[in-house]
From TrEMBL:
Transmembrane segments: 27-46, 66-85
Entry cofactors: Cu cation
Family the UniProt entry places it in: Belongs to the cytochrome c oxidase subunit 2 family.
GO molecular-function terms, A-Z: copper ion binding; cytochrome-c oxidase activity; oxidoreductase activity
Species this protein is from: Microcebus lehilahytsara
BP terms from Gene Ontology: ATP synthesis coupled electron transport
GO cellular component, one term: mitochondrial inner membrane
Lipid bilayer topology: Multi-pass membrane protein
Protein name listed in UniProt: Cytochrome c oxidase subunit 2
Gene3D superfamilies: 1.10.287.90, Cupredoxins - blue copper proteins
Catalysed reactions, semicolon-separated: 4 Fe(II)-[cytochrome c] + O2 + 8 H(+)(in) = 4 Fe(III)-[cytochrome c] + 2 H2O + 4 H(+)(out)
NCBIfam families according to UniProt: CoxB
Function: Component of the cytochrome c oxidase, the last enzyme in the mitochondrial electron transport chain which drives oxidative phosphorylation. The respiratory chain contains 3 multisubunit complexes succinate dehydrogenase (complex II, CII), ubiquinol-cytochrome c oxidoreductase (cytochrome b-c1 complex, complex III, CIII) and cytochrome c oxidase (complex IV, CIV), that cooperate to transfer electrons derived from NADH and succinate to molecular oxygen, creating an electrochemical gradient over the inner membrane that drives transmembrane transport and the ATP synthase.
Encoding gene, per UniProt annotation: cox2
Length: 227
């Protein structure tokens, strides 16, 4: 989860988030180089006497400043499209979890198991146990297995919501009357926090998401104790 005064992303817990962080660093380096070049040219123009004014009318210069931006855009677009297709790739899921957004809580349904569904409300600050996080803890956590492909079916019953878990690289809109799909897979166990990322009303800030990712053995034990 995020830490105070943190400037970067949260630690990646899924292959997709790792790719997104690599792409962010790749694009940021390109932006840094462009900014440095522009600043250098501006400094030269302000401090150097122009003795070859005809240079700016040269055909070669116009060719370079037309082709170079196109090459830079290609260097950004190709990895971006690759990640986009990876995020939309649908594999055979091992588990399906249906998520419904409400004002202002989430409800979950494990569609592979009969009658396994529950609502997830934010824990009020006065009921928090020591060590629990204010405005991020819920009364019912979502327990999922690690290293398995999980299909998320996300919708809403009232207004627009957005089911977002930054550490997993997942952000999918919950739209009334429409069922959106996302693929989720984690590479390590842990507890991951998220929130609704779509302004959905007065209590928009009080719709936390808590995922508890555990090994398959512990997930099966949780299922047996729940069913």
């Amino acid at each position: 989860m995020a830490c105070p005064a943190q400037l970067g992303f949260q630690d990646a817990a899924s292959p997709i988030m790792e790719e997104l962080m690599y792409f962010h660093d790749h694009t940021l380096m390109i932006v840094f180089l462009i900014s440095s070049l522009v600043l250098y040219i501006i400094s030269l123009m302000l401090t150097t006497e122009l003795t070859h004014t005809s240079t700016m009318d040269a055909q070669e210069v116009e060719t370079v400043w037309t082709i170079l931006p196109a090459v830079i855009l290609i260097l950004i677009a190709l990895p971006s499209l690759r990640i986009l297709y990876m995020m939309d790739e649908i594999t055979t899921p091992s588990l399906t979890l249906k998520t419904m957004g409400h004002q202002w809580y989430w409800s979950y349904e494990y569609t592979d198991y009969e009658s396994l569904c529950f609502d997830s409300y934010m824990t009020p600050p006065l009921e928090l146990d020591p060590g629990e996080l204010r405005l991020l803890e819920v009364d019912n956590r979502v327990v999922l297995p690690t290293e398995m492909s999980i299909r998320m079916l996300i919708s809403s019953e009232d207004v627009l919501h957005s089911w977002t878990v930054p550490a997993l690289g997942v952000k999918t809109d919950a739209i009334p009357g429409r069922l959106n799909q996302a693929t989720l897979m984690t590479s390590r166990p842990g507890i991951y926090y998220g929130q609704c990322s779509e302004i959905c009303g007065a209590n928009h800030s009080f719709m936390p998401i808590v995922l508890e990712l555990v090994p398959l053995k512990h997930f099966e034990e949780w299922l047996l104790s729940t069913l």
